[in-house]
Specification:
single chain; 283 residues; alpha/beta; Ubiquitin-like (UB roll); Cytidine Deaminase, domain 2; 2 domains; six-stranded mixed sheet; four-stranded mixed sheet; 8 helices; 30% strand
Length: 283
């Protein structure tokens, strides 16, 4: 897979290796601010890895509950920042959407800086009326175990920099549909959901989302907003993510490594039920 050049910066570094010193060229994961504007109002600024910015903005608007469908986006375009000269602005024009931009900015700042209590977080998700994911979706545990290796083999930017998170969408057969990388794991997920929104693929009710880091609350709520029934991570979930998954019917898998994983909620989608009459122990 070809590495998006805008996602990588190259720099000269000094390497010490068992007493030998040399100057070498190193690749770094790019990190730049992205400002999302709705009409004339700046909405938020996030640090992200450049690339797929329109997807990131669209996914953010959906997963944060500002919009409910692609029909509400009249126009979305990347623009140059007046200060940096880079394409670090996404301008969005919405239709049939009423919101208080000042209130939204306060909420985003509180959530990212000091956080809010778990009960209030889950109550806010419940009030948005998110649908429970498809209860009929299933994925074979053997297929699930193979997904991390597919993800790793396609992480083009990570292979050069070692410094990015990834999110990938798979179908029930284990085929990877789309992969996105970013310095922020939540941004990678927003890029996935934004891709699906702009391409008309929502809800993602027959898919698995795999993230390279931990499965936190924010990742779980973004998966639910995209209609995804199974969220898997190679690391641990947070306690609040587990509570949210159990309440809203999301299958949450952690520690997906090798031939082992732990299911924290919704095990019926990935662990076959015991057949009637099957012995449970040696007699």
């Amino acid at each position: 897979m070809r590495t998006p050049e805008q996602s990588v910066d190259v720099t000269q570094v000094t390497e010490w290796d068992e007493g030998s010193v040399r100057s070498v060229q190193d690749s770094l994961a790019a990190e730049e601010p992205l400002e999302v504007r709705i009409g004339e109002s700046p909405l938020t600024v996030t640090m992200r890895t450049p690339g797929h910015d329109r997807e990131l903005a669209a996914g953010f608007l959906l997963t944060e509950g500002i919009i409910e469908s692609a029909d509400q986006i009249a126009e979305i375009r990347s623009e140059q920042s007046s200060t940096s000269g880079r394409n670090n602005v996404v301008q969005v024009e919405l239709r049939d959407v009423v919101f208080d931009s000042d209130d939204l900015r306060r909420n985003f700042f509180a959530a990212s800086s000091c956080g809010i209590c778990g009960k209030a977080s889950i109550d806010a998700i419940r009030r948005r009326g998110l649908r429970r994911p498809d209860p009929d979706f299933r994925i074979d545990p053997e297929i699930l175990c193979g997904l991390p290796e597919i993800l790793r083999s396609d992480q083009a930017v990570f292979s050069r920099t070692g410094g990015l998170h990834a999110a990938a969408l798979f179908d029930a057969s284990g085929k990877m549909i789309v992969l996105r990388e970013d310095i922020g794991r939540h941004n990678a997920v927003d890029k996935i959901v934004g891709w699906a929104l702009l391409e008309g693929h929502l809800p993602l009710s027959r898919h698995v989302l795999l993230v390279s880091g931990r499965g936190g609350f924010e990742i779980a709520q973004k998966a639910l907003a995209g209609g995804i029934p199974v969220l898997a991570s190679v690391s641990a979930p947070s306690s609040l993510a587990v509570k949210l998954a159990r309440e809203l019917g999301l299958t949450l898998v952690g520690f997906l490594r090798g031939r082992r994983f732990v299911v924290y909620a919704g095990e019926f989608r990935c662990i076959p039920a015991e057949k009637p009459g099957k012995p449970t122990s040696e007699s």
